[in-house]
Design a protein that fits this description.
Elements lengths: L1 H25 L2 E5 L6 E5 L19 E2 L31 H8 L24 E2 L1 H4 L11 E2 L14 E2 L7 H4 L23 E2 L2 E2 H6 L4 E2 L1 H4 L4 E2 L8 E4 L2 E4 L2 E4 L2 E4 L7 E4 L20 H16 L15 H6 L1
Antiparallel strand pairs: 1-2, 3-5, 4-10, 6-9, 7-8, 11-12, 13-14, 14-15
């Protein structure tokens, strides 16, 4: 009789132990806390996906998904494990360029498991002018490495098309993050002698191009990464399925543009140019000769101090060649 009871108890214990073991095996990670309870160490199955019902289960559900960034079996391409089997990783480098170029550079062959061919934007070409975060290798200043609800995996609002109705929120990526706070003033004033160097006299040409119901967006004139032209001006821009020329020429105190948008137009900050093109009404008053003279003197003084004639919010792209030599 006692033998039968002992046998049943042993059977129940065996079943319980087996269930515990199976639970441990089926779990992707197991948590352990040290004696003080201050530190928690996660043990992981490195052969299993990092994205499951138990871990990172919200990833991969946004509108734009970075394929490699939400593939739970490829996390270690960017996140390097310190000790196999433990959820501890080396800190990501402050400059993510070296990670991004494994897929986005012509120096490397796109990994065979990547279905689509990612855009090849790295490295920066010699003699190019670059957008500051791109030149510094800070790709994640603008892009989310995993997923995003914004076009091109961006971190906030930015227009997808060549035309957009202007508002500050339309350019949330530029205005609402740390890079260009204050830059929205450039697009709010139709007349200025201080806010931007892109002006004809005191006529703010940034305002005239952008601040309208069907305003030109930044991507029409400027490249988001780098360009061979000062001010990161595009040589061409995409309109539908066509590539249209811009033909921008920089001058000492202005420049000219002979694009497919309009006939040749020239601007000068201190000696305003009359252009034979159809335009909308120009609000405000033209600057006087004395005001233009004072603005030239101010800009010269700022140049002596090795500053751009633009005000602080408008950032001049660094010259990669110069910085590399230093």
């Amino acid at each position: 009789m006692n033998y039968i009871i002992i046998h049943k108890i042993m059977k129940l214990l065996s079943a319980y132990c087996l269930s515990v073991i199976l639970f441990m095996i089926s779990s992707v990670l197991i948590c352990k806390t040290n004696a003080s309870g201050a530190e928690k160490l996660l043990y992981i199955d490195t052969e299993a996906s990092c994205i499951s019902l138990k871990c990172h289960d919200t990833m991969g559900k946004k509108k734009y998904v970075h394929a490699i960034g939400v593939d739970g079996l490829k996390c270690t391409r960017c996140h390097e494990i310190i000790t196999d089997g433990e959820h501890r990783f080396k800190a990501l480098p402050p400059k993510t360029e070296r990670l991004c170029e494994m897929c986005h550079s012509n120096k490397f062959t796109t990994p065979s498991e990547i279905k689509k061919n990612p855009p090849k934007v790295l490295p920066i070409e010699k003699e190019a002018f670059a957008h500051k975060p791109f030149f510094e290798g800070q790709c994640t200043e603008c892009h989310d490495a995993h997923e995003s609800d914004y076009y091109r995996h961006l971190k906030s609002d930015y227009p997808e098309t060549p035309y957009a109705k202007y508002s500050e929120s339309t350019y949330g990526l530029c205005f609402l993050v740390n890079c260009h706070k204050g830059l929205e003033k450039v697009f709010a004033e139709p007349r200025t002698l201080t806010l931007t160097a892109f002006r004809n006299g005191n006529l703010n040409l940034h305002f005239r191009h952008v601040n309208k119901k069907k305003g030109r967006t930044c991507i029409v004139c400027h490249d988001n990464h780098y360009s061979k032209t000062p001010k990161i001006i595009n040589e061409t821009f995409t309109f539908g399925k066509r590539e249209l020329a811009i033909n921008y020429e920089k001058a000492e105190s202005g420049g000219s543009c002979n694009s497919t948008c309009h006939r040749l137009a020239t601007y000068d900050r201190y000696d305003p140019v009359f252009n034979f093109i159809k335009t909308t009404p120009r609000p405000g008053m033209d600057a006087t000769e004395n005001e233009l003279k004072l603005s030239r003197e101010r800009d010269r003084e700022m140049q002596k101090q090795k500053m751009s004639p633009d005000t602080v919010p408008v950032q001049e792209p660094p010259d990669p060649v110069t910085e590399q030599k230093q």
